[in-house]
Structure prediction request, 623 residues.
Amino acid sequence: MTHSLQDMRQQAAVAAKVFVQRDYTSGTMCQFQTKFPSELETKIDKQQFEETIRTLNNLYAEAEKLGSQSFIEGCLACLTAYTVFLCMETHYEKVLKKIAKYIQEQNDKIYAPRGLLLTDPIERGLRVIEITIYEDRSFTR
Amino acid sequence: MKSREYQQIDPQALPTPVRTPPHDHPQAGGGDGRKEPRRTPRRKWEVFPGKNRFFCDGRIMMARQSGVFPLTLGLILVTSGLFFIFDCPFLVKHLTGCIPAIGGVLFVFVLVTLLQTSFTDPGILPRATPEEAVDVERQIDDTGNTSYRPPPRTKEVLINQQVIKLKYCFTCKMFRPPRTSHCSLCDNCVERFDHHCPWVGNCVGKRNYRFFYTFIVSLSFLTAFIFGCVTTHLALRAQGGKGLVFALKESPGSAVELAICFFSVWSILGLSGFHTYLVASNLTTNEDIKGSWSGKSGEGVTNPYSHKNIFINCCSVLCAPMPPSLIDRRGLVPAEESAQTSGMDTERPKLNNKSEMNVVGGSLHLVFDVQESCSDFSLLLNQTKTVPLPARSLVACYSPNTVSVCFPVSECCVKVTPLCAVFQLLSKVCIDHAFYWVWLVVFYGVHQAQLLVCLHQAYIMEGNCLSFNKSTEITVFHCSFV
Prediction:
């Protein structure tokens, strides 16, 4: 979290929180709804928001993808009685780190200047993307 | 809690109090210059709401009831031990040295996968935060104030052109994702819930199903292998007309192994076969038992999660990327929620900057913002008299963080000796689908009377002592009036 964000959190008041729910139309895969919440209409461009969500969805799809690499990893893990999971970082965890970096980058560049804050869904059990809307006032007490 | 009264919270019911804007979180030892010891931050597993047990500082977890897991472990160790002690020497001499090697590999496989099944997070979904719960609540139509439990809420989604109903979980305060089920033994929602296995002492869900499957498959191999070896061993010994009894007397351990293996191999083989079928059709035990996709409820109901290809189904269940644990056991509880010790013995409780009181027409109207959460302190109260407050004072919740208590003033001005306290159970209240007991505790100091309203989920009262043990969560509001 950047210093400015920390300042903002301490000084600004939370006006509202918007929750972007999960989208289950393609099954149990982790995807989020791209529907633009009405509370953000005055705060951010619809295209920008949808772009963020779409990128996140692609990243999560990459994490859960059943490719040849994951198949090889799975077979290898099975042969070692899954003990490799104790020593190695899994593919999913690697992508989660990518996602965390992407969210921080989005917050710094796009959302913080507009008084918004994206919370990494992993901190909410991959249930929702929590967007905090801060009160629109100057950062003085 | 035996009798639960469900009270719909109507935020519009009471007159809106003057709300003080939230200040920064006050530092410990705030206004009176008292330095309070800052407690070491706790790990999230210590405040985990489900019924689980944690070991090694949150690295290992199991269900609270370990079931027959010690029995499972014991049987495997005993049988394998007897095998290596009694049968292997004979078979190595008469047959081949591969036998203990194969047995050893299988034994290690079984043990490792068993421990992984039991000690891994099965895919527990953390409970929804209060803000999320309020948001979900808002999206559902409310039928107004009712005094009974509202009907179960469902949401319909379309998955692969099939209509699936998502149920609302009252404990976890969220709509359960598809294939998720709430385990009543562990009190958790588990993703891709298969079943709660007492033999491994844990739920079997998305994250540990592959361990479980490998465990039962390798166990069936091990059991069959030991059974075969023991039979061969006894047959070889009984050769030459010596008889089975003679063979058994020479190797008594084999009799035990034979008995255990004979009775367990059929059920384990059966279980392996059943789960192989489930894996190949991408089903869970839960769905199979309920017959969700068998078409008995209607026509054209097929499993929407199946890839229609046995190989792909097997891959997606056993070789898919390992999903992460969502409950973050070893993370630290954020500073706003971490416990603060406040000297609650006979010292006066601190003044709460965020609270205020109005005397409104003969009644005392107190508004508190949730500021502190204490645990592990006991209030030693000199109870001289309990205040006969009305059985149900008016309590309502305006937001997840503010509680308003309103009760007649005359009944709270009780003449008691200084530095004593009275306490009274005010009410049971439901806030965000969780039930709390609201206590009124009054400290009368020499110059100030101080009032405490404790919001607590479970309480222990022994004599004059109201104590809250470490595992319970309480919220204490301080207020002071002259």
